[in-house]
Design a protein that fits this description.
Shape: elongated
Largest sheet: 8 strands, mixed
Radius of gyration: 22 Å
Number of helices: 12
CATH superfamily of the largest domain: FAD/NAD(P)-binding domain
Number of domains: 2
Structural class: alpha+beta
Number of strands: 20
Distance between the termini: 48 Å
CATH topology of the largest domain: FAD/NAD(P)-binding domain
Helix content: 25-40%
Bound molecules: flavin-adenine dinucleotide
């Protein structure tokens, strides 16, 4: 019987970054990562827009994202391409929002600049939607915008492949096509009586059942995103997350090809990742295909549900997104959908950031809430401290964060007001 020191379930960015930092901090550990799919990063990591920003009002979010961005930047500067482009994150707003205390304090906190209506028009964005349409759909005029400059887009498969390369060179084992079906609870000191563990016995996770047999370890870490409760619910552990479906539509057109080259920040001619006012539909430029990826993260109206292979709904684009887009982006009128896909946000609805919780010899890292790419490095450093029982994690750049702040019963995360 082979027994690992640590078995990680989930080879998305969270599991990979966690494994990377745990192994770096504990080089002698014998670590195995299992995933149900045939290779790494096939879950929500593959579905991501992979935009990054340090523009957050919550101090916790700011620390997690800004330190991760700096770490990724250092990897790319060291010669490993992560597809990072600092093309900016543009928030389009009316006067009231632009002058709000939250936005004004952000402007002082992060590298950013304000854009005028004229500058926004030059990007190919119509600042005043048709009054009739605006009335029906509750659309707002765009009075200005602000662009976060330490922000942009990257490629999640490249980030994942960086971690995999490092993990392989450190001797971490990968087992793909390995669905974990159950965590086996056992008494920490066995009496070998039928019905163990009894309520008066200390418990541990002894093994995980998989399609290819039982795997044993001293410690288990779940980086299983929206699938976490499949494994924790039978144990009576609640990870406090819900799956929320998010769809992405890749749109192409001559006008879009022109727009993609217009920039507001950075060295490259790439349109900023842009969030429209009203329904905060976002436009993610894809410089390679010269298309926009359009998506929207719904609140009320989109239930919590989970399908194994979620698909984008074609009438969703035409009924919900297109009527709004047409009012702000004239180039959309001669565009067409090239492809579409859907994935899930692992939503922590308390405050919209990661949840890290440890029970017995089981660590859980989930709840990335639609921002797991931009925060994965920090999540991995927190996971390493959680594993080692350290009070604090040191993020890239030296900022410290208390691990229990991201826990469930011990949670201390300030509210984010800039939720997209
Ligand atoms: C449409 C969309 C747009 C997004 N846009 C952004 C963005 O712009 N910026 C950003 O930072 N984030 C974004 N995100 C969020 C980001 O993609 C996620 O936060 C991140 O990928 C989560 O990584 P993960 O490793 O936790 O989860 P996943 O990538 O889902 O990995 C979990 C892994 O666990 C495995 N697994 C689960 N259960 C089991 C089991 N029982 N047995 C074996 N394997 C198991 C799965 O196969 C999977 O590979 C977006 C997400 C979506 C869906």
């Amino acid at each position: 019987m082979q027994k690992y020191d640590l078995l990680i379930v989930g080879a998305g960015v969270t599991g990979l970054s966690s494994a990377y930092h745990i192994k770096k901090d504990n080089p002698d550990l014998n670590i195995c990562i299992v995933d149900k799919w045939s290779t790494y990063a096939q879950g929500n990591t593959a579905k991501s827009d992979a935009a990054f920003r340090d523009v957050f009002t919550s101090d916790t979010n700011y620390k997690l994202a800004s330190s991760s961005i700096s770490f990724y930047k250092s990897i790319q500067a060291g010669g490993f391409n992560l597809g990072m482009h600092f093309n900016g994150y543009l928030f389009l707003m009316n006067h009231r929002n632009l002058n709000s205390p939250a936005v004004q304090s952000l402007l002082r906190k992060v590298k950013s600049k304000v854009l005028s209506r004229e500058e926004i028009s030059e990007l190919g964005i119509k600042t005043d939607p048709d009054p009739e349409a605006a009335k029906i759909m509750g659309l707002r005029n765009i009075d200005g915008g602000f662009v976060g400059e330490n922000c942009g887009i990257m490629e999640p498969d490249l980030l994942a492949s960086y971690y995999v390369k490092e993990l392989e060179s450190m001797g971490v084992e990968f087992r793909y096509n390995t669905l974990a079906t159950r965590l086996n609870l056992s008494p920490s000191s066995k009496l070998n009586f039928p019905g163990e563990p009894f309520i008066w016995q200390d418990k541990i996770i002894e093994s995980v059942e998989t399609k290819s047999g039982e795997l044993f370890a001293d410690h288990f870490l779940l980086a299983t995103d929206v699938w976490t409760s499949d494994l924790t619910s039978p144990l009576g552990i609640d990870p406090f997350i819900q799956p929320k479906k998010v769809q992405v539509f890749q749109v192409q057109g001559n006008g879009i090809v022109e727009m993609i080259r217009r920039k507001v920040t950075g060295e490259e001619d790439i349109f900023p990742f842009t969030i429209l006012p009203g329904p905060s539909i976002d436009l993610r430029p894809d410089p390679k295909s010269r298309t926009f990826w359009v998506s929207y993260s719904e609140g009320i109206g989109r239930g919590f549900s989970l399908e194994e292979n979620p698909m984008a709904e074609s009438d969703y684009y035409s009924n919900n997104l297109y009527p709004v887009l047409r009012e702000y982006i004239p180039a959309i009128e001669d565009s067409r959908i090239m492809s579409s896909w859907a994935g899930y946000y692992s939503m922590n609805n308390m405050d919209g950031t990661y949840v890290l919780e440890r029970n017995m010899n089981l660590s859980v890292v989930t709840g990335s809430s639609g921002s797991g790419i931009m925060k994965a490095d920090a999540a991995g450093r927190l996971a390493s401290s959680l594993y080692s029982g350290k009070e604090k994690a040191k993020l890239y750049g030296g900022t410290e964060i208390r691990v229990s702040n991201l826990g469930i019963s011990t949670r201390r995360v300030d509210q984010e007001t800039l939720i997209i």
